[in-house]
Amino acid sequence: MTGHCRDFDDLRERIAAIRDISHIRALAHWDMQTHMPPRGAEARKEHLATLSALLHERLTDPALGELLERLRTPAENLPPDSEERAVVREMARDHERAACIPEELMQEATRASIDGLQSWLRAREEEDFRLFLPALEKNFSVSRRTAQAIDPDSHPLEVLLDRREPGFTCADVDNIFSDLKGALIPLVAQVEARADRVNDEVLHQHFDSAKQWELSLRAARSIGFDLDRRGRQDCSVHPFTTSFSSNDVRITTRIRDHEFAPCFFASLHEAGHGTYEQGLPGKWDRCVLGSAASGGMHESQSRLWENVVGRSREFWQFFFPQVKRQFPAQTDGIDWEHFWRAINRVQPSLIRVEADEVTYNLHIIIRFELERAVYDGDLDLRDLPAAWNDRFREYLGVQPKTPSEGVLQDIHWSGGFGASFISYTLGNIISLQLFAAAEREIPDLRASFRGGDFSPLLQWMQSNVHAYGRMLEPGDLIAQATGQSLSTAPYLSYITAKAREIYGL
Ligand code: ZN
């Protein structure tokens, strides 16, 4: 690559500026959702639009395309583990995707998502799906045309899926879903027959907000998210994680006075995302490689700490005394095991974000099947609410009474339509595959949780996942870290064993 050194330096500089703009845009977004006074919204919309246009301009710059073209062959001749090779590959991917979307379509998409959000909120308030339908149709049309602009020869859902989860196909999704449905639907029925074995009343009492906040910080800190020098937590309506460098990672949570779980588990979930962002190599802060490998890989880290660790016996043997100290009256006469069962209660429900580990994936399967039916022309968007309700009855045995408990519950379809939810299920599956691999390599991994030591697991994730950023494609990263390609087996054996233990099946 010696003859191309200057080109490569030029590429690095261009990428660094693109990353800077993107991080500043993320900072403006974070502020909008955490600290901005309401009257700031008008001006902020303009700030964000200008930054997005600037970013698009830099990303689609023809000079960048020519530079990448000149570097393509020399990069391909480098060894597979070369950093330069991965930088050229990943930047070419970002450039090509941005470049094939016409400017007008980009702007149409931005407007459609702003209108979509407003009509989604209004439709929820009035409990009337018809108020959302025009925006939904618009978003579907924009998503479909975007997919066609990227690759006119493929099924649009295939293109949208690959955009979110590189290298992942609809056939892979089919295989995963058929495994999950085959195991989970009968499991839910078995658990339901023994529903009275778990009582979770302890979680539904008054819990002082300030004390919940303190406890959530303690939980995030205990799993190894650095809140002191490299991160912070704030409150927002929808919890999220964002970062401006590996040394500045922001998480948010939300607090409900009469529920224990939402704040605590949102913090653990987002802190899990946060460990990934803090674990990315600092040398890549201004490089295209300094991001998570995919949406599914990112979710694998959040679900790992929220569920696999955060709902484990060993975690609660360690952490329950802290809950007891914080909330002595609410936990009077309750031991850790009772509490652990309560936070693992399985119950078919209507709302995805509140669903337990066993039923959660069925919520995702329903959404993906509906998206596919729409793209295949088998389902008209007008009939989406009825189709939604039918599938909930079929898979979960529950029936929404209002649109906001059903088809209008998620924000996702207000800003696009297609492959919007799949990362959550992939995250669940990958989290268990990674955890099983870590358990094989680290003796007494679970026992270390009992003493409050999560560093062996975190270090394993850092060196096997975080350290790679976008160096490897997600499929290759999973294979390298776990010795096998993506598999539902570890997840299914985990979830079945847990349900058996808690419900005595
Ligand atoms: Zn998440």
How would you characterize this protein structure?
The protein is mostly helical and 505 residues long. The protein has 2 domains: 158 residues; 334 residues, Neurolysin, domain 3 (Orthogonal Bundle). The protein has 20 helices and 3 strands. It has a 3-stranded mixed sheet, with helices on both faces. Strand 2 and strand 3 form a beta hairpin. Helix 8 runs parallel beside helix 20. The protein is globular, with a radius of gyration of 23 Å. The mean pLDDT is 95.
Shape assignment: globular
Largest sheet: 3 strands, mixed
Distance N to C terminus: 61 Å
Name the beta content range: under 5%
As for the CATH topology of the largest domain, it is Neurolysin, domain 3
Provide the CATH top-level class of the largest domain: Mainly Alpha
Give helix % range.
55-70%
Quickly give the CATH architecture of the largest domain.
Orthogonal Bundle
User: Spatial order of the strands in the main sheet?
Assistant: 1-3-2
Unreliable sequence segments: none
SS element count, helices:
20
Distinct compounds present:
zinc ion
Instruction: State Rg.
Output: 23 Å
Domain module count: 2
Order of helices and strands: HHHHHHHHHEEEHHHHHHHHHHH
Q: By helix and strand content, what is the structural category?
A: mainly alpha
Number of strands: 3
The whole-number mean of residue pLDDT values reads: 95
